[in-house]
Amino acid sequence: MKVSTRFREMFGERLGTVTRVFRAPGRVNLIGEHTDYNDGFVLPAAIGFSTWIAAAKRDDRVLQAYSDGFDEKISWSLDALSGPPQRHWSDYIRGVAGALEGAGHRLAGANLFIHGEVPLGAGLSSSASLEVATALALTSISGIALPRLELAKLCQSAEHEYVGTRCGIMDQFVVSFGSAGHALKLDCRSLEYELLAVPENLSLVLCNSMVRHELAAGEYNRRRADCETGVRLLQRYLPEVRALRDVTRGDLERYKHLLPGTVYRRCRHVVTENQRVLAAAEALEAQDAKRFGHLMYLSHASMRDDYEVSCKELDLLVDLAASSTGVYGARMTGGGFGGCTVNLVRADRAAAFKAHVAQAYRERTGITPDIYICDPAQGAEAWTGEEGVQV
Q1: 315-332 per-position pLDDT tens digit
Q2: Which H, E and C letters describe 223-281, residue by residue?
Q3: 305 among known catalytic residues
Q4: Which is the catalytic residue, given 36, 39, 91, 171?
Q5: pLDDT, mean of residues 373-380
Q6: DSSP secondary structure letters along 293-362
Q7: What is the DSSP letter of 26?
Q8: pLDDT (tens digit, 9 = 90+) per residue, 134-174?
């Protein structure tokens, strides 16, 4: 995508002369949901919707951010960033600046103009997109050179401490390290990763249910607490277990009696989902779309029944996909309780699939879904020049 002249003009109108432009994409997780904060495996890809930030350095210690999506401007002193979450979009900006300052990186004051393309509440990680774009902007104009991995970890810390969501590392990692045309298999313990090519004859079609259930944030943290409870109980007999990543299916069944029913189901999802991610990566390397798609359906069933983070609208979208021509697999993606499904579709059937699902979903729910045909995209970048020269 090119950075338009109008984007730069809008910055000048609001905050002053632009010096640098940065972008960070959203992401879709193909398989491996709620495994990242359990030290497990995930298989996401960056997508072609980004958060764009135009940034100019200031002469003082003030950070000022304007969001054109919310038509709102917020300012902070870089010497007074602490405080609890405000449940406001600016928590992400304040949090990234606070995490950087807290790690000993003294920031320059800055004016930020923020333009977001990643759909909000769709499970496509608009939050990590905003965090990583902000981190790139603030470090770059402050003359701070950070390894990309450290930047991703600081963004995760910002979401923990300033937003109040105890997320894993997946979102910030793939937003930072994603590669066009590839999915990224990530070991969330070692942070070793492998780029896997997505065949050109396949499309990733994202179907936005257009629903967002308000209980999502609290339920996300409860699911994580359930997993931690499972680990503590299993450690009585399996002292080597550090996280659910270390638990086999046999272990789980052997010590099932130690776990409350709900905790057992949460653990079963994570343990089996890790197995599905590894199998899906093998299928992708073998270009076995049918096998990959079957694993996606199994993943959705596990999130619906064991982890209980789906909803009737997401289940309907998966059912519609399963009855469509040219679809290999479908599942909900993201934290759950609304948002999107990801569908692995033959590229030559993607447009017809989009039309079919839009009509059928509208007839069943009265809601018109947003549907996006995507290819895996490049990770976060700094840009310069009006024509969007990558640097």
Answers
A1: 999 999 999 999 999 999
A2: HHHHHHHHHHHHCCCCCCCCCHHHCCHHHHHHCHHHCCHHHHHHHHHHHHHHHHHHHHH
A3: no
A4: 171
A5: 95
A6: HHHHHHHHHHHHHTS----HHHHHHHHHHHTSTTEEEEEEESSSSEEEEEEEEEGGGHHHHHHHHHHHHH
A7: E
A8: 999 999 999 999 999 999 999 999 999 999 888 889 999 99
